[in-house]
Design a protein that fits this description.
9-stranded mixed β-sheet, 18 helices, 412 residues, 5-stranded parallel β-sheet, Rossmann fold, alpha/beta, 2 domains, 42% helix
Length: 412
C-alpha cells in the first residue's frame, strides 16, 4: 500500500529564498521528480497552470502576453517547455516591473525549447534550480546535513569532523536500492515498484523522447539505454559505444547528450586543470537515479544488489548524486569532476566551487585499506589542499591521515 504522506523537500526553502531575489524562478528536472508537488506547496494564494492540460494550454497559448498581464503575480506555470512563445512574453511582462520579485514560478523537464527560452529570453531575470529525486534524508524525514553549510563559503574542518549520522543504515540502503522518485519512495510492493518503473521508462521513450526529438530512431535509442545501464559508473568511449550500437560516433555522442539533457544520465567531465600527471580525458557518467538503474539491470532485491557486479559503481553514483542534490538545495555553485591518471590513480569525485577544490573518495565498505589513499594524498599535495574526504559505511567521522577525513554516508 502506498504511503501518501507529504514528503518535506529541502528545496522548498531554497525556492522561497530565490523568489525573494528574482522575478522568475525556474525549477527543472526529470519527470516525476516532484517539481509540481513542490511548487504547489509555495502557498495557497498562487495560481497554477499546467501546460500539459489542454484547457490551461489554450488559456495561455491564445495570447501569452495578455495572459501574463492578467496573471502577473504569484503564478505557477507547469511544464513551461510546452509553449516556446511563453518565454519572450514573460520577459516583456517582467520588464514592465523589473524590480518586483517573486512573480512567476515555472517548471519544466529539459528540452531544447526550455533551455533556449530561459537562456535567451530570461537572462538576468530568472534563477534556475535543478531538482533531483529525493535525497535519502528527505525520504527518511530527517533534517538536511550540515555537510553543505560546512563547505558553503570555505571548508570548515571543525564542522565536518563533528558530523553525525542523520538516519540509520537500513533507511539509507532502502533509498539506495529503491531510488528517489517520490512515488516509489512513499512505499509500494515490489510488483508495484516494477510496474511504476516500467511505465516511467515507457513514458520517457514513447512520449518525451518522441516529442522532443522526432527524428530520433526510438528502437536504437532504447538499445542504447539498455547498454548505458551496464556502463553506469564507467568512462565512456564514444567510438566503442558507436561500434556496439552500429551507429556513427556523432550519433553515439548525441544519444549520451540526450540522456544527460533529460536528467536520466549524468555526464561528469575529467579534472584536467593544474595537473602534473598524464590524465584520462574522456567523460565518465552514471544513471542518476539508483532505483531506475537497478530496475534497468533487473536487480529485484537488496540481496540481489549486494551480489551484483554493479554494486560498487552503483554505490559511488548514489553517493555522488546525494552530494550534488545537497549542493543544489543549499545553492552552492560547484562543478563535479572525476580524476584518473593514465597509471590508474583515481579520485571518484572532485568538487570545484567558491570553497576551492574538495576531493572525495567513495567506498562501500566500513573499513579502509590505507594503501588505497595514495591517490588522495598525492592529489592533496599536488594541489596544496587542506583536506580530502572519504565517504563510506563507517559509523562515525574519523581522521585517516593528517589531511584525510572519513565521514559516514549516513551523515551526508
Amino acid at each position: 500500500m502506498h504511503d501518501k504522506r507529504i514528503i518535506q523537500r529541502d528545496a522548498l526553502d531554497t525556492i522561497r529564498q530565490l523568489l525573494g531575489q528574482f522575478p522568475v524562478v525556474a525549477v527543472i528536472g526529470a519527470r516525476q521528480s516532484g517539481k509540481s508537488t513542490l511548487c504547489s506547496m509555495i502557498g495557497q494564494d498562487w495560481k497554477i497552470f499546467d501546460l500539459e492540460k489542454e484547457q490551461d494550454y489554450q488559456a495561455v497559448e491564445h495570447d501569452p502576453y495578455l495572459f501574463l498581464q492578467h496573471n502577473s503575480r504569484k503564478v505557477i506555470i507547469d511544464e513551461a517547455q510546452e509553449l516556446a512563445a511563453l518565454f519572450p512574453a514573460l520577459r516583456v511582462v517582467v520588464d514592465e516591473a523589473r524590480q518586483e520579485k517573486g512573480r512567476f514560478l515555472i517548471t519544466g523537464s529539459s528540452s531544447p525549447e526550455l533551455i533556449s527560452g530561459i537562456s535567451e529570453s530570461l537572462a538576468g531575470r530568472v534563477a534556475i534550480l535543478e531538482l533531483g529525486t529525493l535525497k535519502s534524508s528527505e525520504a527518511g524525514g530527517t533534517t538536511a546535513s550540515d555537510f553543505y553549510g560546512a563547505v558553503e563559503d570555505g571548508i570548515h574542518v571543525e564542522r565536518l569532523e563533528s558530523l553525525t549520522p542523520l538516519l540509520d543504515r537500513e533507511r539509507l540502503f532502502r533509498s539506495w536500492f529503491g531510488g528517489g522518485y517520490p512515488e516509489v519512495a512513499r512505499g509500494s510492493t515490489p510488483r508495484g515498484h516494477r510496474l511504476w518503473m516500467d511505465n516511467y521508462r515507457a513514458t520517457y521513450l514513447q512520449r518525451d523522447i518522441r516529442k522532443l526529438f522526432p527524428g530520433l530512431k526510438i528502437e536504437a535509442y532504447r538499445t542504447f539505454l539498455s547498454m548505458l545501464a551496464n556502463l553506469s559508473g564507467t568512462i565512456i568511449n564514444h567510438s566503442e559505444l558507436a561500434r556496439s550500437l552500429a551507429v556513427s560516433q556523432p550519433t553515439a555522442r548525441q544519444y549520451v547528450d540526450i540522456a544527460h539533457g533529460t536528467f536520466l544520465w549524468r555526464k561528469i567531465e575529467p579534472f584536467t586543470r593544474n595537473v602534473t600527471k598524464r590524465v584520462t580525458k574522456m567523460p565518465r557518467g552514471h544513471i542518476r537515479d539508483s532505483g531506475l538503474l537497478h530496475f534497468m539491470l533487473n536487480i529485484g532485491s537488496e540481496d540481489d544488489l549486494l551480489r551484483h557486479p554493479i554494486l560498487g559503481r552503483s554505490w559511488e553514483a548514489f553517493i555522488t548524486e546525494e552530494i550534488i542534490k545537497g549542493m543544489n538545495h543549499a545553492l552552492i555553485p560547484m562543478t563535479p569532476y572525476y580524476y584518473r591518471t593514465r597509471h590508474g590513480a583515481e579520485i571518484d569525485l572532485v568538487l570545484e566551487g567558491h570553497f576551492g577544490l574538495l576531493p572525495i573518495e567513495i567506498k562501500y565498505g566500513s573499513t579502509i585499506d590505507h594503501r588505497s589513499l595514495r591517490a588522495m594524498k598525492d592529489f592533496i599535495e599536488d594541489h596544496h589542499l587542506a583536506l580530502g574526504i572519504v565517504i563510506n559505511n563507517a559509523d562515525a567521522a574519523e581522521w585517516l591521515d593528517e589531511k584525510i577525513l572519513r565521514l559516514p554516508a549516513t551523515a551526508i
